[in-house]
């Protein structure tokens, strides 16, 4: 499985234009969780979109609601699309696993991106989430319903996905200073996405 996980960055750059076109053509079934995330933010809040892709439909919707977006994606082609579509927002070519800015955002979103990371990389993302999220800020990410790995397929190429167990996500959120607001286990009303919504607060000391 590890060889497939290591190819994710190259996969998305290789298929960037096709992936963007397919995403734009598809029905936006996962809009309700995004709306729930945005409803918890103050007007004009800053949002960090990790794994923003070409920006459609998520980042364009966030921007249209008056929020300030910083999008990060490992694909230069995807970021070029974002810069063309939303030149007034900020776009960065970077791997979320190593990106730092020194800024803290009111909202941090890792949507349909975090679940492409291997188990250990997912665990290492939580201190990064904590470093990027302002006190009282909102974090939302999606993954799978249970611990495991799966290989899908996109245009004939393998596409890696992974998830920790929900109990581990709850624990690492707590240890990194997040209070769990909600967890959805793939309901149809949420586009069958399993997601976690949390608020940044005080870190739970590791014992």
Automatic annotation (TrEMBL):
InterPro entries: Methyltransf_25, SAM-dependent_MTases_sf. The keyword Transferase applies. One of its GO terms (molecular function) is methyltransferase activity. Pfam families: Methyltransf_25. Keywords: Methyltransferase, Transferase. SUPFAM superfamilies: S-adenosyl-L-methionine-dependent methyltransferases. GO terms for biological process: methylation. CDD domains: AdoMet_MTases. Residues 47-137 form the Methyltransferase domain. PANTHER family: TRANS-ACONITATE 2-METHYLTRANSFERASE, TRANS-ACONITATE 2-METHYLTRANSFERASE-RELATED. This is Methyltransferase type 12. It comes from Bradyrhizobium oligotrophicum S58. The lineage of its organism: Bacteria, Pseudomonadati, Pseudomonadota, Alphaproteobacteria, Hyphomicrobiales.
């Amino acid at each position: 499985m590890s060889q497939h996980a290591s190819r994710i960055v190259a996969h998305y750059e290789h298929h960037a234009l096709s992936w963007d076109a397919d995403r734009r053509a598809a029905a936006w079934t996962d809009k309700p969780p995004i709306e729930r995330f945005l409803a918890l933010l103050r007007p004009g809040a800053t949002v960090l979109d990790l794994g923003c892709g070409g920006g459609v439909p998520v980042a364009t919707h966030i921007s249209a609601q008056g929020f300030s977006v910083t999008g990060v994606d490992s694909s230069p082609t995807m970021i070029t699309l974002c810069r063309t579509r939303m030149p007034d927002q900020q776009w960065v070519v970077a791997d979320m696993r190593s990106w730092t800015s020194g800024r803290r955002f009111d909202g941090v979103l890792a949507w349909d991106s975090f679940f492409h990371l291997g188990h250990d990389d997912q665990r290492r993302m939580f201190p990064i989430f904590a470093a990027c999220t302002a006190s009282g800020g909102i974090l939302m990410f999606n993954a799978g319903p249970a611990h495991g790995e799966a290989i899908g397929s996109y245009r004939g190429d393998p596409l890696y996905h992974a998830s920790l167990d929900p109990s581990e996500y709850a624990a690492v959120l707590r240890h990194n200073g997040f209070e769990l607001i909600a967890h959805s286990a793939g309901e149809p009303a949420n586009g069958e996405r399993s997601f976690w919504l949390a608020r940044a607060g005080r870190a739970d000391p590791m014992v």
